[in-house]
Design a protein that fits this description.
With 160 residues, the chain is α+β, with helices and mostly antiparallel strands. It contains one helix and ten strands, in the order H-E-E-E-E-E-E-E-E-E-E. The structure holds FE2/S2 (inorganic) cluster. FE2/S2 (inorganic) cluster binds next to loops.
Amino acid sequence: MVPSDPGIPQSPHGPAPVRRRRFIEALLGSGFFLSAAAFFYPVLRFLVPPKESDMGSGSVIAAKIGDLKPNSGKIFRFGSRPGLLVRTTSGEYKAMSATCTHLACTVQYRDDTREVWCACHNGKYDVNGRNVSGPPPRPLEAFEVQVRGDEIFVRRRQES
Ligand code: FES
């Protein structure tokens, strides 16, 4: 038999304080579990990045003709990563990964300097994605561009 707690009023109908205690213990236990999950989930997502969606030889529509004026750039979605489409001053289209090769910030096109720029640590690339100054150790991955109709398609370069 469970000794009665003098601080808890007893129900004349049975063991209500025991049920209440179990309910509070379950509530505290689930609160602890949820707190631990809220802490560890982002840590796990960071340590185990999601699989890159396999773009294979597939291509994505990066923009429509007319979306970009000469000397401008546009970020588009390339699988799970951002891509950067640049229209040069001569009207040529260039496409590359928009993920900086230093610490993975998203790069952008700067029309004033006509470069691809990473704001995180002032990394700079040319319009072909070659790293020209700052900390980036490698060029950006260059993509293939095809204009079909009024749409601009981008895909990974085929290895030959
Ligand atoms: S993350 Fe781009 S320069 Fe550091």
